[in-house]
């Protein structure tokens, strides 16, 4: 009977550990999404500023070069 209780306790601890790891992974994911959102907005503004100072136009595609070998 004691062995069954100890085995049950060990299984419960493993389940609790798995839940803890899942919660930590979820917290890291939320933090990463938040950081990317903040950095992404600032980065977009920086690229728009640089683009405006360089003339604001899009660069044309390069002309195709000679093909063959």
Q: With helices defined by DSSP (H or I, 4 residues minimum), what is the helix count?
A: 1
The share of residues in extended strands comes to under 5%
Q: What share of the residues lie within helices? A: over 70%
From the helix content, strand content and strand pairing, which structural class follows?
mainly alpha
What kind of assembly state do the chains in view correspond to? Answer: single chain
The 3D shape can be described as elongated
The low-confidence parts are none
- Profile the largest sheet: none
Number of strands: 0
Total separate domains: 1
**Rg, please?**
28 Å
End-to-end C-alpha gap: 81 Å
In sequence order, what are the helices and strands, one letter per element? H
What do the pLDDT scores average to?
A: 80
Question: Explain this structure to me?
Answer:
InterPro entries: Flp_Fap. Pfam families: Flp_Fap (PF04964). This protein is an all-alpha fold. It has one domain. It has one helix and no strands. The model has no long low-confidence stretch (mean pLDDT 80).
Descriptive labels:
single chain, 69 residues, mainly alpha, elongated
